[in-house]
Amino acid sequence: MIFLRTASAFVCACALAVMIPVGAAQAQQGPLRITIEEGIIQPLPFAVPDFQVETGEAAQLAGELSRVIAADLEGTGVFREIPSSAFIAQYSDFNAAVQFADWKAVNAQALVTGAVSVSGTNVNVKFRVYDVVSGTTLGEGLQFSGTTEGWRRMAHKIADEVYSRITGEGGYFDSRVVYVSETGPKDERKKRLAVMDYDGANVRYLTDSSALVLAPRFSPSGDRVLYTSYESGFPRIYVLDVGSVQRRVLESADGTMSFAPRFSPSGQTVAYSLTQGGNTDIYTMDINSGQSVRLTNTPAIETAPSYSPDGSRIVFESDRSGTPQLYIMSAGGGEAQRISFGDGRYGTPVWSPRGDLVAFTKQNAGRFHIGVMRTDGSEERLLSASFLDEGPTWAPNGRVIMFTRETQGEGGASSLYSVDITGRVLRKVATPEGGSDPSWSPLQQ
Q1: How far, in Å, CA of 328 to CA of 317, rounded?
Q2: By Cβ atoms counted within 10 A, which residue in 2, 245, 253, 403 is the most buried?
Q3: The model's pTM
Q4: CB 199 within 8 A of CB 75
Q5: How many CA atoms lie within 13 A of 65 on its CB side?
Q6: What does the buried/exposed string (b/e) look like for 90-107 if buried means 16 or more CB atoms within 10 Å of the residue's CB?
Q7: 79-81 vs 44-47, strand pairing mode
Q8: Contact 132/103 with Cβ under 8 angstroms?
């Protein structure tokens, strides 16, 4: 367990637009703030000197904490780390006054300092966030406590706090991703469920590779995962407890195939696709009683349902118009409204946790894309393009999307990538093996 204690709250007096030059930012008075709306032309320079050791054997841990915090922030594309080789100031005392002139000299606009104490397996980390330009703190009395085993979580939580205090946005670093780990050649691919930290660390396997598994989806509380398994020979939906790895099947009638599940925001209902008699429609099921309700009833293939954050609507994929397109209907069913009208085929829609956008996969002119649009279908933007990009999932703050990319000419190997909603910050996510079908968890509690 990790706890945060905040002695004083940060109140922003003014905003720094991300597209103005750094020189203009240096004339800024008052607390520093980045507004994340459009592409970042010039990321904000920041420094994270190694945290100081206060008590215990914490020298290595202090350095590792600093490195993970810096990697989290720089990985957003919003921040640029100033390397320690450029430092003028010698940071050796957490309680000493900061010499802001020394940090301004190396162009740092934000500074993160910290101190670590260790007692047995218990760790306490104190930290501060400074606006170097105005010479003020963006937070005092900040600290986390935990165990040596959970030091990476502490680093991610500190990075979330720094990110939030400078951008005003919620963080996403203290989160996990469940995905399908892939090994072997394309014609003998082995797949098993795995869960990891958002940055690819701490991978843990949840199933073996004896049966094909697809489309894992985190619950809103992050403690359970829905997925589709072919172990019976037909696709069936299972719900798995991430902690105990215990699972159970969500029963469906004989002769049917169920797949593409996703939790409702309450976590008590599952929306999914069911094929019966050659027809595929969207259903919901109460996860406790097993009672199901049919939401669509057309000759089309209708699949990939995803709830709005308030649970009132569902976006889904249907070929009722002749090609796969995106539609929105009430969470209780009824008439659906088409929202995709561009060239090409649309699929795998996922509602943003902020409620403002829908992410999707688009196939057009021989290329695959990850894109976003407003929930009325307006302002469509394509964020990626490759031989095969598919299956988007949102970070908890609705600012980053992770997806699957299959590279042509590498035996069909799949990897996980992330891209921010501006489309400018595209990164490969490190995994021990191939990866596909990611699903991002909410922030951990």
Answers
A1: 9
A2: 403
A3: 0.90
A4: yes
A5: 33
A6: ebeebeeebebeebeeee
A7: parallel
A8: yes
